[in-house]
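Lab notebook, page 48
Experiment: co-folding of the full assembly
Goal: obtain a model of how the components sit together before planning crosslinking
Operator: M.T.
Materials (sequences as entered):
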Amino acid sequence: MLLGRMKSAAAPIRDVLKDLHTRLVANYEGRIADYIPELATASPDSFGIALCTTDGQVVEYGDYKTSFTIQSVSKPFMFGLAIGDHGLDHVLSKVGVEPTGEAFNSIVLDEVSNRPYNPMVNSGAIATADLVKGKDYPERVKRMLEMFSRYCGREVFVDNTVFMSERMTGHRNRAMAHLMRNFDMMSEKFEEALELYFQQCSILVNAHDLSVMGATLANGGLNPLTKIRAIESENVKYLLSIMMSCGMYDYAGEWAFRVGIPAKSGVAGGIVAVVPGVLGIGLYSPLLDIKGNSVRGVKACQELSQKFSLHAFESSAAASKILELFSFKKR
Amino acid sequence: MAKIISTHSFRGGTGKSNTTANLATLIAKAGYRVGVIDTDIQSPGIHVVFQFDQKKAKYALNDYLWGRCSIHDAAYDITEQCIGNVVPGALRPRLYIIPSSLNSGEIARILREGYDVAKLNDGLQELISTLDLDYLLIDTHPGVNEETLLSIAISDVLVLILRPDNQDFQGTAVTVELARRLDIPELLVVVNKVPEGVDENLIIEQVENGYQAEVAVMLPLNNEMSRLGSCGLFTNQYPNHPFTQGLKTLAERIIKSQK
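Observation: model returned without errors.
Model output:
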């Protein structure tokens, strides 16, 4: 691992990230989320980029160590945990996989099935949290934290202040849970599911963690740094599909069209993006556009995708361009 | 394009800093812009060989690593004192030193908190660019740590110094293996402190068979070096000494080597 770190530190891709960071950090478009009071304390200057390859090289630049709450970036991973606990068919009986075209916090369900449209909107994520197994609530929280720890390659914790803030102000989420309970789409433990959902959103991560989480998915579910399996390989495709179609709030369609990389963003300013078989990208910048995505993060992904032909439907040999720059020999 | 040369030894006391400082001076004297950076942050010392007064230095490498200054701010022009007779304002030759701090608090902080090696790499690249260097010599910490591996990873030439000593011989094998795994373009072995009367061919055979690496030069153990006690540049004081001649051979070899 030490050799890998040294190669990463000297790799030419670092110059690419440095250049990208230098240009984009000067962009102060967007605003910091304030619907949860604790999120409003983030610094608009913060901007971190991290790339982690499936062979465990990590190249980072800027504020990649700055902690923030994972928020909605947690949603595909929880979807994966639910699939692992119950199998795909059961999970799909509780939550759909269709993009909504509505805001992430819309109180809207599929009129025919009464399911939330997908696990990337709040209602779908709450329904997903309801599916996480455990003999009691503490065990469910423990299993959730263990799952995120496997992805990150380190033990993760909940920011209690943000959790309390989420809980105090989460009336809209509570309304969704009640609505779904009304349609029998959630268990009688739906209050617990809400608590679990608030906890999952309040987990502290940084851009480095997100890149490793992305690389774990890119690597078929095996964390490339720890070699610990975070999710069964046959379930990875479900997470990536949902990230591709619904991961970027109601910018998801345009994202899939322009960037073409499965990704998920969160309102704290994090984005995780996955280039299957190649690498994970972790980004953090709390200035958000009107759709709720990190302005600098979106621009960085767009540039990386374009520069290195990372779009899923790129006709040229995807990724080989970027992997060449991970070799420190090519200075 | 500048050439990066790391000098490394697996154990301390091999004469690494003396070799680096004198080698840098000889390369600069050949008409080049040369930088010498002391990345032995835990036990800095190359400034002593250059007789560079740390009190005159506002910033050191440590300050750059903690974000207190640019790497350029920590570079000091020592051309006059080490080479002399340089045409005023001439771009070449030039010799710069980037010292590490001797402040015990700074050293303790590095040991306690570590530092971002990627930032060190950025600094090295920036240094080459802002000082327009032809050669950057990196004086590393003995043994194997993150900074050593980074220096090896980015080097065009790795100069490995060892004494004809069994502990050195075995330890150096570790560095050779790491250098191979990091695909170093050129590996030059320097056997230093070779006592008079030993069979040099036997040592060369032992090293070349053991490491599959070429012995670039053998430098003699000498009393003059001991008497100098690192207080100045040996090659300036003993220009005709076999040690100086050996280093000149090494300097020429490095200058002529292809990337």
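Interpretation: Residues 3-257 of chain B form a domain with the Rossmann fold fold (CATH 3.40.50.300).
Next step: discuss with group before ordering constructs.
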